[in-house]
Amino acid sequence: MIDAHQEVTRAHREGWARIVAALTKRFGDLDVAEEAAAEAFATAVERWPADGVPPNPGAWLTTTANRKAIDRLRREGKRDDKHQEARVLHDDDPPEPVGAVDDERLRLIFTCCHPALAVEARVALTLRMVGGLTVPEIARAFLVGESAAGQRITRAKAKVKAARIPYRVPSAEDLPARLSGVLAVLFLVFNEGYLATGPDTGPVRHDLTAEAIRLTRLVHSLAPADGEVTGLLALMLLTEARRAARVSASGELVALGEQDRGAWDAELIAEGHRLVRERLATGVAPGRYQVLAAINAVHTSARDVRDTDWSQVVALYDQLVRLDPSPVVALNRAVAVAELDGPEVALAVVDRLEGGLAGYHAFHATRADLLRRLGRGRESRSAYDRAIELAGNTAETAYLARRRDQLGR
Predict the structure, then answer these.
(1) Phi and psi at residue 103, in whole multiples of 5°?
(2) What is the tens place of the pLDDT at every residue in 245-277?
(3) Which helix (H) or strand (E) covers residue 31, if one does?
(4) Would you list the domain boundaries of the chain?
(5) Tally of CA atoms within 13 A in the half-sphere of 208 that contains its CB
(6) DSSP string, 99-116
């Protein structure tokens, strides 16, 4: 028997962005598109358990969302002139010319990532409109409060409407300047899937990582010579390649050094390595995503964690720090320093980062592990407790709890 609630969840995962994009194209209003899509899914939650799952859930949801949008527009009296009324009733506008990439979700991304919006607003809006993330999930991705995240989305939609931001893929001459915001969005969508923060989701959200990779491939087809687009795609592929080995059968996160490397996806690794080599061969100074991809290439080149070239990893992080001197990058560099120079040296680096990362669970998890390796059990347990308190991922929480409890033995 088909579980109607599971089908609604699956339809949301697979169809949210398509429905929002189609509504945006038709009605030209992000607010209308988002609310109508949300109402359609709410109706499905109410009706499918009683009426049964329709043969084509996506078509049912799209039709329902269109009707919800039309009802709202009529109630609000926003389509008074004959031309707009015809559009609502018949949707008979002539087709637009096919662009370099004919994908409505990509158009939606470039609309949400328009430079007229602040960077934070672009990311939040796209995570909501394209990724389908909830406001709490977006808040966790930003390390901000839910109210602040919600306000960013609301202001961004209002700005899109007021500025009449077009719903289209940019022209070839405008594309390079628009890519950085798009890449930041795709990276955050991927990260939310790679280590999901929502308490009601699985620890790894393959739907989000797959969608981020798919959209990044589309952007790469638009700008194949752009190093950062290539770098981000390589980074995603090399990270996604390890997905099957990242969570144990009991639902616990498996650290990189403990993963079964035979379970890694060899095809994704080969493609990621090829892209990294392709960028190295150009001789052009790499950007942030290219360096991150190179770090992952080093990790995925080692058949055993003991074969990892940690000196190369630290050297790459040194390069990354110059490009992105953020405390998170410094924290990740410290993890590599611990392997090269020992936990005591790394702990001194980590302790200097506390001011900027006190609310970041990975800071406390890293510190807990270094203290454990130094035999400082009581301090390590306290750091694990704080990391568990801040972590939102169920698999990561299980891993941290086990490591903490081992201190007692």
Answers:
(1) -145, 120
(2) 999 999 899 999 999 999 999 999 999 999 999
(3) helix 30-51
(4) 4-90
(5) 28
(6) -SS--HHHHHHHHHT-TT
